[in-house]
């Protein structure tokens, strides 16, 4: 099992931002992700910086740490411009970028460009087209495509990704259409659990729901002629009924991680502590988890 973190882009680079990314590498995290939003939930009225420039800066001050988005969505991205940014990020980082990608939701990003929020069906339709075109853009030198939602006209992406045939996709999905996309295009699959259980569910119910998701992923892979074992299975924590309790102690995290490793998860992502927020945690305990927890799993 791998342990990763997500660093929200809330700090000015020279007032704490740079130090967090460097510290994430020192602590031995496998990957440090950031959210790709224009603003997000309770952080809307405070500092919030762009994901692509943040990851570029992080690549410049780290050497081994993998970096990525968790997640990018079509809400305000276009495959042609995103592909150019990703190829550049992959080059700057010398092949350390993972693209977490999802269909998006009804948050602030959904209407920030002046459009009406898409229906769930339209989000799913757009997501399918978005992922397929992005896959081509990152693996072919020149792409021309006319889709229902997205188009490319001899879009050039030379020299392509450092990682071949392209940088990995970690596809966030819980529904059948998203699962099929993960099975076809993903090198990993991402979930935050069942959102219906967050407020009033129990950890045992969450485990059962996650087991069901992994079963459905297996079926989607079988339909695509793919071995589900080929896909990494990533759990982004903080959105299950456990909330932030796994970060209360090393023992609490080891128990949480063990239960989810048994389900088949290969990577757990924890939020870097942010005081006075839903992601508040003791920094010393957090760092102990980073350096000690995986060895205790056996």
Summarize it:
This protein is an alpha/beta fold and 298 residues long.
Structural summary, described in words:
This protein is an alpha/beta fold and 298 residues long. It has helices at residues 17-26, 51-61, 79-92, 120-139, 176-185, 203-223, 250-263, 283-297, and strands at 2-6, 31-34, 66-72, 97-101, 142-146, 151-156, 169-172, 188-191, 232-236, 267-271. The chain has an eight-stranded parallel beta barrel with strand order 1-2-3-4-7-8-9-10, surrounded by four helices. Helix 3 packs across helix 4, helix 4 packs parallel to helix 5 and helix 5 (176-185) crosses helix 6.
Rg (CA only): 18 Å
Mean pLDDT: 97
Tell how many strands the DSSP assignment holds.
10
Spatial sequence of strands, sheet with the most strands: 1-2-3-4-7-8-9-10
State the share of residues found in helices, binned by percent.
25-40%
What order do the helices and strands follow? EHEHEHEHEEEHEHEHEH
Which percent range describes the beta-strand content? 15-25%
Number of helices: 8
Q: Report the sheet with the most strands, covering strand number, pairing sense and barrel closure.
A: 8 strands, parallel, barrel
Termini distance?
A: 10 Å
Which spans of ≥5 residues are poorly predicted at pLDDT below 50? none
Shape: globular
Briefly note the structural class of the backbone.
alpha/beta
